Amino acid sequence: MDASGIRRAFELGGSLERPINLSIGQPDFPVPAAMKEAAAEAIHSDRNGYTVTQGIAPLHDSIRRHLEHDLGWNDADAFSTVVTSGTSGGLLLASLALLEEGDEAIMPDPWFVLYPQLGHLTGATMVACDTYPDFRMTAERVEPLITERTKFVLVNSPGNPSGVVLTEDEVRDLASLCRNRGVQLITDEIYDEFVFADAARPDGTCPSPARFDHDALVIRGFGKTYGCTGWRLGYAAGPTWLIEQMRKLQQFTFVCAPSPLQWGVIEAFDIDNSAQVETYARRRDMVLDALSPHAKVVRPGGAFYAFLEIPSSLGMTGTEFMERAVERRVLLVPGGVFSGRDTHVRLSFAVPEPTLREGLDVLVDMLQGG
Ligand code: PMP
Predict the structure, then answer these.
(1) How confident is the model at residue 11 (pLDDT cuts 50, 70, 90)?
(2) Domain span at 286
(3) Ligand 1 geometric centre to CA of 190 (Å)
(4) pLDDT-based confidence at 285, cuts 50/70/90?
(5) Are 65 and 15 members of one domain?
């Protein structure tokens, strides 16, 4: 495992006095008061011990209600759920359950940093699906990569680092490809609540392959949606045979997700975060307005990232651009951290607008050769 890319960005940033930090991967708004109170109440009323490995029953009930409403998963006997230690916990348990040496799994390139490590951790090979230049992991791009060793296809929409949201047609095609080829589909939907109006379905929800494949494994988190990344809470929902293996693995690893915090998120699905999403959509527009005239940046339909291509006229890799930006106090993450190629940088717009404006001004100047 090579942590050097991210470590280097942190080291460089650590020495700055007043950094303009556009490298942040979490929302910049506080946890809703109702959730804080529910978690504090659980701590004060001594609900601090282990829970059952799969998570507390009232949380399962609200997850199921949410999945029925959101994905139309209304056959309660057709799937199971497990509360996990973050989305990372769900991804790890699923990979431990499905992969062994000699197996393959397909992931997008660019990827979320954990994905390639799932191969190192299990002895399997993570096969990268090249999604450049538009960052769309379509059925056409995935199909040629499927072999008799492929155990799952992992899709992430809205995507990190690009913010790209697949369309309803694209997720439907991906779901039917996986079904026809008998390959498990895993959908990492950690940013499902951060989808902007122009990329959302007419009812405002995020296109998901799980609406078309009720055997998909859906992995989601509470951290990004409600600003509580440190609570380490997520959930997985999917075929009972698979969730059972994940529960068994959780029993001997994480044991259970943090227990008072499970009580804290029971009511989470009732909280309306549309104001935050609108704020992020506005900041997305600020990023596009500022940078698009000077460089290629694919329009993010969700999440809070943009993946900026470094113009070839500058003759710099993503890492070199990142290093130059640090000299001007702007922190970014180089594309090589998320990809087999180092041609882009990721910037996060989960920062207050004055900070974003300041950062964008520097980037525009750099893109103009300054
Ligand atoms: N998947 C993606 C695509 C992510 O961006 C992240 C966090 N940056 C995770 C999973 C892990 O999230 P968690 O903190 O819930 O483990």
Answers:
(1) confident
(2) 5-25+273-367
(3) 6
(4) very high
(5) no
